[in-house]
Design a protein that fits this description.
The chain has about 230 residues and is an alpha/beta fold. Helix content is about 35%, strand content about 30%. It contains 8 helices and 10 strands. The strands form 2 sheets. It has a 5-stranded mixed β-sheet with strand order 3-2-1-4-5, sandwiched between helices. β2 and β3 form a beta hairpin. α1 packs across α2. The chain is globular and about 50 Å long.
Length: about 230
Amino acid sequence: MKILAMDTSSVNATVALSDNNRIMGEYTVSNDRAHSQIIMPMLDELLRHCSVQIKEVDVFAVALGPGSFTGLRIGIAAMKTLAQALNKPIIGISSLDAVAASFFATDKIICPIFDARRNDVYNAVYFGDKKLVADRIVDFDELLIEMSEKDVIFAGDAVLKYADKIKSFDKPNWHIAPGSLLMQRASTLAAIAYDRALNGDYDNLFEVSPIYIRLPQAEREYNLAHGIAIN
């Protein structure tokens, strides 16, 4: 079973190809170039180096966010188009779930954090194979209070922004993930999708959509201008 996975929810643009849960290849780029410029060339290059044609892919997996609104739209639109054109199943996965899954063999709380601006972070909380707190947006300072007595690993792109604040608390029970596990990786996405595919747990192509949590800025401004309540 060949799975092609893509995550464009953060500054990382990342694609991976697996075959029966063996990673055949992975391509990750983290820079200031727009995902729309690089993600499809990356995908083509990955398939070429793995000597796999796109029609040989059995399942498409894509990160749903939360994260960059523009990035999410690019990745999800690309994978939905490929899945529909080739009549193949698709699996959408929370980006927070994908980061947490990298820490499968730890007895610590996993606390991925993605930057949501205004001192807010997108977050969920995990222990072992259990998701203790669902995807949410939370004030970062409130999250630190919530985690103050827990043995925690922080991961995700917001760690780059808040690392000094995390360290300033001098909590021996707080840990920052190493660079190799800090950010989203499509190979982890592919591994989650493989387990779901074995159980036939696919998503409806037409219902796969981004996990925004917070409305995009343009929509928030429109709602404010027209007196529409914002949750």
